[in-house]
Design goal:
11 strands; globular; four-stranded antiparallel beta sheet; mainly beta; 114 residues; seven-stranded mixed beta sheet
């Protein structure tokens, strides 16, 4: 079992930046990859960024060039650095750890005002 705790969300003006953190604990050795998803009000949850076991990263087209996913293995933490934020980036951001089971955090709210 893997536990995930997100933090770092908040209210920011358009053009601003935020850094989200996802702290993992428990059976971390089971994790193959970690991803950030987001869910805007009234919309389906969508993949934002993904980092694999080998460090390879992938991004949704809508955030390429603005968001960066990274990890600190010593701290068992994955980060999502978000810059040039837009109102359409508003939503609840969830951390997801992929392994034998699909593990989710409870999410952190990001609100970008225009």
């Amino acid at each position: 079992q893997v536990q995930l705790v997100e933090s770092g969300g908040g209210l920011v003006q358009a053009g601003g930046s935020l850094r989200l953190s996802c702290a993992a604990s428990g059976s971390i050795f089971l994790i193959n990859a970690i991803a950030w998803f987001r869910q805007a009000p009234g919309k389906q949850r969508e993949l934002v960024a993904h980092i694999g076991f080998n460090g390879n990263t992938n991004y949704a087209d809508s955030v390429k060039g603005r968001f960066t996913i990274s990890r600190d293995n010593a701290k068992n933490t994955v980060y999502l650095q978000m810059t040039s934020l837009k109102p359409e980036d508003t939503g609840v951001y969830y951390c997801n750890a992929k392994g034998p089971a699909d593990n989710w955090g409870k999410g952190t709210l990001v609100t970008v005002s225009s």
